[in-house]
Amino acid sequence: MRLFLNNDHLVLDFPYDPIQVSEIKKIEGSSWDRVQQVWRVPIQSLEETREFAARHHFQIDHDVLVLTIQKKRPVKCVYMADGKLVLKFPYERVLIKAVKQIPSITWNPDKKAWQAPLHSISEVLKWAESFDVQVDNEIYSHAQNVKDKLEQLKEASRSTDADIVVDGLQGELLPYQRAGVRYASNARRTFIADEMGLGKTIQR
Known about the structure:
Blueprint: E1 2-6, E2 9-13, H1 18-24, E3 31-33, E4 38-42, H2 46-55, E5 59-60, H3 62-65, E6 77-81, E7 84-88, H4 93-99, E8 106-108, E9 113-116, H5 121-130, E10 134-135, H6 137-156, H7 175-187, H8 200-203
Parallel strand pairs: 1-5, 6-10
Antiparallel strand pairs: 1-2, 2-4, 3-4, 6-7, 7-9, 8-9
């Protein structure tokens, strides 16, 4: 019993077995080749065919074991590429009107898709949920990481002191100023909006 690759098809050669025949018929695109007396399956059904062959202890050729195919993305989907969120969907006036409301979103003519920066992830997820657009799992993971980081920054913003040393600083920071410097260094983009006379300048 053997599974091997032949041109653009997977080929399964095995003696008749009613259980195996019943299973292979369920694999999408499978067909019986009466001339060669083998089963043929399109490359698109690679994973199901490999699982079938492994389950029934077929000899699987190396070419089939290392073979990978790029799955087609759904017509409407959101995924990550080059550090950006990519929103792909067919032309629909309502979808386009809504997508333009996402902060910093732009149209990429090369990809024929909309792109948004990662900091717009919450708005992108709301848009996708509203229009039943499929979202890659890694985006949900990234969104959770962003949420956790924001929670940490929020908690840090309430601090009244921090253990931090600023090299070359002339003068000494008060406890709340140390907390402000630590927060700003972690947040990167932030405003220090203390009232006048509380020492905002030295925190910068």
